[in-house]
Amino acid sequence: xxxxxxxxARSTPAPPATTTPALPVSTDWVRAVVTGAQHIPAPAGPxxxxxxxxxxxxxxxxxLDPLTRVSTAQRLTTLTRLPRSARAEDIDSSLWPAxxxxxxxxxxxxxxxxxxxxxxxxDWPLLQLRRERVRETYALSLDPKMRAQIREVVAAAESGxxxxxxxxxxxxxxxxxxxWSEIKHAAELMVRTGELVITARNGIIRxxxxxxxALPAPILEAAHLPxxxxxxxxxxxAAGTLAVMTAADxxxxxxxxxxxxxxxIALAGLTALQVQGWKDLAYCHPQLLDPVPDRAAPEAxxxxxxxxxxxxxxxxxxxxxSRLIGPFDPLLxxxxxxxxIFDFDYSFEAYVPKDKRLYGHYVMAxxxxxxxxxxxxxxxxxxxxxxxxxxxxxxxSTRAVTARARAxxxxxxxxxxxxxxxxxxxxxx
Length: 429
Description:
Elements: E1 23-25, H1 27-37, H2 52-59, E2 62-63, H3 73-80, H4 91-95, E3 108-112, E4 116-120, H5 128-138, H6 144-156, H7 163-169, H8 182-193, E5 197-202, E6 205-209, H9 211-214, H10 217-222, H11 227-242, E7 245-246, H12 247-254, H13 258-267, E8 271-275, E9 282-284, E10 323-325, H14 335-342, E11 363-368, E12 371-381, E13 384-392, H15 398-416, E14 419-422, H16 424-427
Parallel strand pairs: 1-8, 13-14
Antiparallel strand pairs: 2-4, 3-4, 5-6, 7-9, 8-9, 10-11, 11-12, 12-13
């Protein structure tokens, strides 16, 4: 189903009014606090997060994607924020625990920004405005009788119903691949409007359930808070995970209207920043500025330094600490934001004809310290993680980036349970 209201448009919303001048900050500082907010640990050290569920609560959303050339999107995103000892096979059971919601509170729910994502269950109320917007747009496109029948089938399934079971109960043609049945179109739209919810899976198969049964009562009730409170709370949530964001970044992250994004920032008590080289104002939580710069000092001296408790100093780190960043990771999923912060121009080429690709079918970024120093085209073949080609970014040597790509792949390979193989084409660069 194509969402016709598929904004938000990337045109910049009018910035919220501010009562104090925007603080000037450097791009190095932004890069440091943005990477610091992700809590990506040194591979051998203890992690800030103990599980994939902890990662999800910390970063707020994880984009989903069906491609498994290396591993699933949710596994790559969470493994990057876990130590080397974490194992890929534990990720899904942490995000979708067996037995939830029947035998405990679910950890997550699945919904859409512009694309499919998984969110921490506590954030269900914060997406109420999004659900209302979809409901208003598509209110007349769902047959009331079909909706009632779908709800009846789902209600009869104690732990939620697979789409195939819903289709079978209603005598519908089964969905195959991207050829969705009318029932599946309707059920998916009901998820977007909040009439159904997905908080559990049977293996990789999603289970459709009723919100009033699957969600804890306090979470359901919080969705009815005043609209401005929801806007402000969502802006604070986004600032906590993005660290530094423009109004357009916020709108893109949650697929909000530009008006809702600007209003949320205006109400959230965030500090306005003027980032060196950025056209638009940015915003952050006030406590991120530690120490607070002297506003009367010259601009060069007014740049706040990253807190030593939450960030690393700007620049690269030892090769052994490098990590690979997937194409749907929060650091990369907004391509324009990645370009502004890291000067890293990323395009996903899996669906680009082979002869027109610049880098490869499935490319991950090489993160070293606070910099994206290169990219690597790789794939998992049986029990081997193959590094096909390695590409250094401008200003970084092939040798240094190759060492960092191999180290990052070694950590990922250990988490996936694979060997790592550097192909000849990568070795020769």
